[in-house]
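Lab meeting, action items carried over

1. Structure of the two-component assembly. Owner: GW. Status: complete.
Input record:
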Amino acid sequence: MTAADIPVDAQQINERERRMRARNRALLAVLLGLVALFYVMAIVRMSGG
Amino acid sequence: MLSQLPTAAAAPYAGAAVGDYVQILKPRVMSLVVFTGFVGLVLAPGHLHPVLAAIAVLCIAVGAGASGAINMWYDRDIDAVMRRTADRPLPAGRMLPGEALGFGVVLSVGSVAVMGLAVNWGAAALLALTIGFYVFVYTMWLKRRTPQNIVIGGAAGALPPMVGWAAVTGDIGWGALALFAIIFFWTPPHFWALSLYRAGEYQAAGIPMLPVVAGARETKRQMLLYTVMLWPATFAPWLLGFAGPLYGACAGVLSLIFTACAVRVWHDTDDAGERSARQMFHFSLLYLFLIFAVLLAEHIAGGGG
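Predicted assembly:
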């Protein structure tokens, strides 16, 4: 089955889900980054930096 | 909610892509802001832990991006009219206005809070002032009302080196003010060069840029005037003693070329001075980058880094 065989509605749902997954992954990366940032920040501040 | 749906979207709204979120942060503007903020941080007297310095630069970048996002939210109507901005996520219908506003507000608050917690509250207050000035004073108040919009509003773009400086010292010194002055006096000729060859688009969008309100001749005159006023500001770091003779020489050469660009625009018989204005706009970007790069390089080479 090629992309041309998929009905338009299904393609739109696929696109929506693809974007949602990408946003979720980006949000996860941002949250993990924030956790790391606050961890490093706390360590540096506690060591008198 | 339905009234928020983008009008340009023919297909059902699929949600903004990650790239759209990056685009509304105005990454190209952000890069220059980050660079000038970083130079302010390096030149400031004193010491800041490298990790905290990196966090300070990150906060400056995120704060600049956040104000860009709120600017795009507010200006989505005029962005749709101008060719240069019509493909931005909001006017193109790839993102909902509320998403852009929420994103911008969260990043603004986050960047200021992290700057305060990690570095110091003086720098955080200056960062908040920068974001607030760009959003409320420039975007919402001045941009659509006066041809002096980018003169006064230019202060927002000039503040990042002061934020970087304050991250180290906790306050504002003469050096920080000198860096502020360079960007402040550089902004009008930089933006008016762009608005000279984009005057038609600004007129269609109803933005009272100087070429639209006062004409090309007056704009060229003011560009030359501000380019001359930029000279003392550019030499200030050398005169104040936190830059050396190499910087003085480079500043002289670059200022001469920048002034020559303004004179060429002035003499251009074409009313909009399209070719010369375009060249001046592109050189202005190189000018600011090189001025700050030489300051940075000389400081590091002199053992200050």
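2. GW to write a short summary for the group page. Key points so far: Residues 274-301 of chain B form the longest helix (28 residues). Chain B touches chain A at residues 11-12, 14-18, 21, 49, 51-52, 55, 58, 114, 117-118 (CB under 8 Å).
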